[in-house]
Amino acid sequence: MTDTLFDGQDDDANTPLDAEERQQLIPSYITLRRELNEAEQINIAHAAKWLSSRRGDVLDEGFLRELHRRMFGQVWRWAGKYRETPRNIGVDANRIRMDIAQAIDDARFWVANATYAPDEIAVRYSHRLVAIHPFPNGNGRLSRMVGDLLAIHLGQPRFSWGSQSLIDANVTRTKYVAALRAADAHNLAPLISFARS
Questions:
Q1: Calpha distance 171→184 (Å, rounded)
Q2: Which of 79, 122, 156, 186 could bridge to 73 as Cys pair (CB 3.0-4.6 Å)?
Q3: What is the pLDDT, as a whole number, of residue 88?
Q4: For 76-88, b where at least 16 C-beta lie within 10 A, e where not — what string?
């Protein structure tokens, strides 16, 4: 089994990086995919520690960019900056700012008016962010963390996002992607269920 740095870039569930984005990798020691995954996971842990001492508003565009920068800024130079290139998923790059603003406005309305149950509000917002795909990469991880933060803000526990299952990571990812696709088709029930599984 190979472990080249950008394995999986042809998988339609992953966000492929273009050549220029790949060149913005900061740690020079990274040559294998597992090294990249480990470096990103360490960076995300630092972001979680940063979050533990701050109250940020997940319904604020600047906070979303700062959170992404905190999650990936030790690994990628483009962290916290919206993508400028097309993707296999997500909106056109020129629509990102407008669609993020609309997602935030919608979520604020849902919260203020208790339009949905708290879990559904958090999952709907998380899904909107991942569907927009505003950053070159890390959108799923950001959107799940944002979903957790919004759930906590609404008085709910953090989501488990499939981690309570003893199934291997590939099966869990397959279930997550299937739930995202159902949500894309306006059926949020599988994603809400997955978030609490």
A1: 20
A2: 79
A3: 87
A4: bebbbebbeeebe
pTM for this predicted structure? 0.92
pLDDT in tens, 61-117: 999 999 999 999 999 999 999 999 999 899 999 999 999 999 999 999 999 999 999
The pLDDT assigned to 10 comes to: 45
What pLDDT, on a 0 to 100 scale, did the predictor assign at position 3?
62
Residue indicated by tokens 């809400």: 192
Please compute Rg for the chain using Cα positions.
16
Whether the Cβ atoms of residue 139 and residue 133 lie closer than 8 Å to each other: yes
Tokens of 143: 């959107």
* Class for the domain spanning 19-157: mainly alpha
DSSP code, position 16: P
Domain boundary assignment for the chain: 19-157, 160-197
175 near 194, Cβ under 8 Å? yes
Q: If we measure between CA atoms, which residue out of 165, 152, 141, 163 comes closest to residue 119?
A: 152
- Which secondary structure element, helix H or strand E, spans residue 106, and what is its range? helix 96-113
Cβ proximity of 49 and 103 under 8 Å:
no
In angstroms, rounded to a whole number, what is the distance separating the alpha carbons of residues 39 and 156? Answer: 30
Exposed / middle / buried, residue 121 (Cβ in 10 Å: 0-12, 13-18, 19+): buried
Contact 28, 79 (CB under 8 A): no
